[in-house]
Amino acid sequence: MILARIVGTVVATRKDERLVSNKLLIARPVDPHGKADGNYLVAVDTVDAGFGETVLIVSGSSARMASGMKDCPVDAAIVGIVDTVQVKDA
User: Mapping DSSP to helix (H, G, I), strand (E, B) and coil, where does residue 2 land?
Assistant: First the structure.
């Protein structure tokens, strides 16, 4: 799973018919403290996430197991909206 923050949206008027009516969001992976940590990615939103929210993303074959994504051509899917992250540093 990838912890990420939603930073934008993607509008694609022409896309695979299995993706019609699915929202595409741009996410930036973050570390547990919220600091940017990685490259941007586009993910299909399955939980109605919004701009600025911290989310959980699954990728690869796991993305196709997300709700409503069976047999869809996706490599990343947003499967959760994070309320809090607690890290206990040693």
Answer: strand
